């Protein structure tokens, strides 16, 4: 082989040409052959023919060559790519390892941001994005009368109305419902002495079939079992079966005594079905029994309705069908006047998807929450970008040299992207761990009254979301520094004019812009959090009409069975008179009284009473919520009373009396004293108003109050007995055991029921608001600290860059105070511009957040002032450290350096 | 014996090519002539099999190629052994020799093997 001349090197200028190579190689072979033959004495023409003949099928060989060559090429490209990547990864690991401070800080920031995003995504996905976990759940609709201010009784239907609706509608596969007035702890397993009270609920026989819930064991209810006089049967929730019956595999067919009545267990529901999670957030329902529609026909409105639409029926179609049926619904078919009374004055029956009913009202809050974590991600990303830029400045030389040695721009960008990708995936891994524990913790927060919280878990979708977030973060925030660095001027960088060069100035401007964004985002978050916090404070300040602190309640068992109502009332009076007097005697107890429905829970109403001697239009009066109470209840609840409390002589033999709330009193007797006036059409007929109490927030803490009417325990029939005890000790549960002992002495059947503090009921009612406020608040704090970190980074870097300049200035006589002031001034400029931007942003989102606020304007000056204060404070703090460093620069050292 | 009839067993060509390259880089034509001359014209390598064999060996990274100029100043593709190829040649040569010896033993036998004692 001879030496290849120089010019030959250029024939591959346009890259290798495999096909031509093969042809040339074979041609050369044939030529050699011809030469040889000619040397042997052949004539040129004949020699060529002979050579080609000897070679055989030259084309076939050529094709085989191309095939092999193609394969080889592919393999080579793949292995090149792979080894490049491996090299880049190894290089990245090395560079990241060399700067552990940077690596740890970036991974930590990303872990927090991505963890928060994954957790919130899980919550949002669970509540908003995913369909309800029922088959064909889009077909499920919630059917309710127009909203009125008379509690559950006005949000439900009677047995007759249910049947009319079921038979009159044409768009449903089936309509079902459940008894809405079951209170917690209404079931006692009488055979098991130590059993805690359980919560049971009556459902219309086809309830589970309509939802599409399949039993884990046994079967669902049959049509026969819902008829009057049928054999008593029950279905157990999976959780109850596990903890009360130790997951007894032979439970189906066993008989359990519920409130002294034997029930046969026909089945166990699946783990995936948690009634409370959908229909009464924060509560556990343990047992299900079929509702006897006939037995409850005269109880008035008792069932909430839901239906499964026929395939293809839309919600508007169903709505118009419901409007058609509504006028024919009767509260009681035997009372023709009660037909067509379900529609309100200017509103009518309302259909919504079951999903909308379960989680619709949380949509806004969830969107705000999602935006908040999005902002956190943005801030974290900007921070990462900033850190990368700071590194870029110190690594400019390295990249310039690589560029000079032939690394392409793409290669350098790839290298930087890989770096941010690796950081971001490390962050995502820690973030997932964080989200896993957070979501796991959340799903066990029974005290937060959010629907479907128990179903919360980290699933494949959340995992996918995490990956997506990680990749987008890496691309978005790795690209800016990457592009900046790769486009740098090689010459400049290698020369390293150092501090004050044009390149670093430009860097600084980009970094300042990034920090500005950060501060602005943090500002928006802080304003939102501030507004939510203010709302929450306002909610806590609401006058509930009773004093929740230092009061506890417990369900008391009693037996007032008697041949007639009057005897029963007298018996009941005797039981509770004794109970209350004995409980009141316990040290630490200030007052005690009994009610059948505690506020902030279930409630009911009994038609509309009227002031005697006045005429009102039919249906124009709202139905007041009804409470049956003993003497002492008003005091035990800490309600303010005008007039007199009930006494034990308000019995069946006494005059009918009631206590009403002030809204009702003001409506009937405006400007007059209602005490002594007479109401007609009450639950006990004509009744004299004995007293007036302040309005109590009955439905929820935030909703405005409705009319309320209180009847004495011996003149009206209570549905149950909740003993309320007001104590004068800081920790009310301290007296619980003595109270329970007293109850046990009075009634050996009294179960070891749990005490609830009234405060905990209030807390539960405000728990969704507290939950969202705490989350947004936490995100705001996170955003604030990230912004602080960003400010610190930029200022600190700029001080480092200006070391020389500052040194010169100090040598020329600038004081340390002057230098410090300048650095702080730079910081404040950044912070103020960020604040202005953030203020504009906050105005923009005010509309979104306004609906979430309670009695707080979206322009609440305190929230804005707090934000400005917090941000300025944090900015000054993060600017102070670099400022101090700047003021301690020694002129001589600064000048010698470099 | 007709020399062109002497067909090469599968796999034998590879080892012959590798052996031919042990003396230095060669182009395809030179490889055929080297094998022919070395075998005293007994082994004739057909072009139709030589080139695919070369390319296969190249793709297995036993040999590598480079364009160069031939003795008569023409562009030719030169092949040379890689270290992988050398290793392969060594091990294959051993196997081949053991094989050839075994075959020879059987073919040159003058009496049947002794009875095996079970």
From TrEMBL, chain A:
Keywords: Cell membrane, Membrane, Transmembrane, Transmembrane helix
Keyword Transmembrane: yes
Transmembrane segments: 102-124, 367-389, 421-442, 462-480, 512-533, 771-795, 830-856, 862-883
Location, primary (coarse class): membrane
Domain MacB-like periplasmic core as annotated: residue spans: 103-321, 585-720
Subcellular location: Cell membrane
Keyword Membrane listed: yes
ABC3 transporter permease C-terminal domain location: 372-489, 778-891
InterPro entries the UniProt entry points to: ABC3_permease_C (IPR003838), ADOP (IPR017800), MacB_PCD (IPR025857), Macrolide_Exporter_MacB (IPR050250), Perm_prefix_1 (IPR047928)
Membrane topology: Multi-pass membrane protein
Superkingdom of this protein's organism: Bacteria
Family assignment from sequence similarity: Belongs to the ABC-4 integral membrane protein family.
Stated name of the protein: ADOP family duplicated permease
TrEMBL record, chain B:
InterPro entries: Metal_resp_DNA-bind_regulator (IPR052509), Tscrpt_reg_PadR_acidobac-type (IPR017799), Tscrpt_reg_PadR_N (IPR005149), WH-like_DNA-bd_sf (IPR036388), WH_DNA-bd_sf (IPR036390)
Domain of life: Bacteria
Start and end residues of each Transcription regulator PadR N-terminal domain: 17-90
NCBIfam families linked: padR_acidobact
Name of the protein described by the UniProt record: PadR family transcriptional regulator
Origin species: Acidicapsa dinghuensis
